[in-house]
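Worked example (supplementary).
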Amino acid sequence: MSDVARKAGVSAAAVSYALSGAPGVSDESRQRILAIAEELGFRPSRIARELRSGTTKAIGLLLADIANPFYTEVAGGVVAAAAEEGYEVFVSHVGVDGSRQSDVAFAQVDRNCSGLIFTSLVAADKPLLDKLRHENIPVVQLYRQIEDEPSDWVGIDDYSASFEMASHVVATGRRKVAILGGPDTSSVSVNRMNGYRDALAKAGLRAVNEPDVWGELTRPAGALRARALFAEHPEIEAVVCGNDMIALGVLDVSREIGKRVPEDLALTGFDDMSFSSAGPLQLSTVTVPRDLMGQRAARMLLQRLAGDKGPARKELLPYGIQVRETTARRV
Amino acid sequence: MSDVARKAGVSAAAVSYALSGAPGVSDESRQRILAIAEELGFRPSRIARELRSGTTKAIGLLLADIANPFYTEVAGGVVAAAAEEGYEVFVSHVGVDGSRQSDVAFAQVDRNCSGLIFTSLVAADKPLLDKLRHENIPVVQLYRQIEDEPSDWVGIDDYSASFEMASHVVATGRRKVAILGGPDTSSVSVNRMNGYRDALAKAGLRAVNEPDVWGELTRPAGALRARALFAEHPEIEAVVCGNDMIALGVLDVSREIGKRVPEDLALTGFDDMSFSSAGPLQLSTVTVPRDLMGQRAARMLLQRLAGDKGPARKELLPYGIQVRETTARRV
DNA sequence: ACGGGTAACTTAAACGAATCAGTGCTGCCG
DNA sequence: CGGCAGCACTGATTCGTTTAAGTTACCCGT
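After joint prediction of all chains, the assembly is encoded as:
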């Protein structure tokens, strides 16, 4: 910076004013300074700027697993919306068990980030959020949320979506329905579960495997549980799943044991991952606006960073019920 | 920091020495200072540290599209390997056209990053890399590489992999083979193409659609090209593709026009994306060690940051040929 | 002609750590 | 008992900006 100042015959302060667009330099000086800065390839040190001003234009995004395609689309939305306001996004992953969540969050704060977006909160993270609030770091809960947490949230109405989906399955004539849900530590999984359960109840039904409905959201876990399920309840006509990965596991086992989908077994997932409609057999599932969700989360956070002190907002986004081949009506 | 110093009855410098583990404070003072720092919840400002020391423990990872599941697994590997050495990873996406690549790279450098990993280099990025070298920013090329670039690279032997795959297809008895490759600006696509082509040549064959083999690596592009291909060459017995997405597009069209896979048409992809083996019809493809590739790239970069000035390294990783249903021998 | 206002600068003081160059003090050796 | 090495610690400076607080110089109205 002082090189530029020297060459332009002004003080370093003048260069700062010129570059920041602040008043205090004449237009001609500004032009000259800008030209010289360009010529010398001068790029101001963000670090020094941030140290001096105490603010950073960066937010943190914490993902359970950076390799999970669901969240990477979310990340895309976050990055895009943040970029619009000149913010950058620091993505890090906390590991599936979430044990490192606290460390990672503070690493983000230490580094740069003036706000954080969480995607994998569980009830045990409450103290972490309290600490962050204490340090005046605004937080947005993306999709998953924890009870009584007074920070912004964005997601979809999982309860209604899964209620609709289970109702659709019932409407196709299946009566013996099993639920394979996600972990009960996730608010999202809990809501989906309740939606399925209530939809069945409304039809006068009960999940054949109740209350053994909780599990992991992975394909192998889905396969494992499906195998046990089919062994114990060979009469099952439909399985509604906590997400697409589980449904995929169920599909694997169905092929293995010769159960035809959708003739012998209806199947629904949740999330509409790209692979759900990839193969010849297309999965009925719920579309979650992943990119939009990321965008909205970023915007909420940016609004807080801009000084909005209002009460916590909870924002619901639209979802879509995708009826595809795996819940085709039996002919 | 001065709060801690005051409470411990020492100077700020002593606190700095204590926290950094440097000599210059007695063990008892160190313990006392550490305890007080802990008690006050003191966390040193990274920004100040970085400004003062001029070094940062962060590297940048530039992805064409942060939502692309191929690269997110790569990112997982990078993050994991970097974390082992206490480094953090700044992930950003440059957009599919790569026009923002230069801006984003310098944004990374401005911010913090002392080294960069590129995943989507094209020949036009050469000046960018030269500039970075001039600023002493070490660079690793991940998978894609550009000619005569004297920086580290890690990837697989695409040529051999696609040669093997095309040979396999020929070995199953198909003679009328078409190639649907990726863009010719990507070194990876070029290598795959050459492998396919040479394998056909070795069998005394020629791609039925030569030289019209280049295109985009997406499902819709694959479908579009497949439609034209089948219209012009209804006799086609096999299509070898630049990646799994293209293969998926071909699969879509095959179903549409009633071509059975693998009976009427053999099909191979490349990358082994999760969805390739998701559906009932499993795609023959090439497995790329995505996570490992990310890890190796990070380690190469970290080694440079540790001061290694040796000549550029090119590291080949193992790949796997996955023969699945779409290239089953005709019965 | 003279004060007042303002535009266009400059100076200097931060920001929060790291680190160099001291400064006492202790202890040991000859 | 003098000298000197080494330890434990402090003060001051530095990193590269931003910005509050000056300092000119000039214009304008009276």
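Two points are worth noting when inspecting this output. Residues 1-2, 12-13, 16-17, 20, 22, 44-53 of chain A lie near DNA strand D (CB under 10 Å from a C1'). The two ends of chain A are 76 Å apart (CA to CA).
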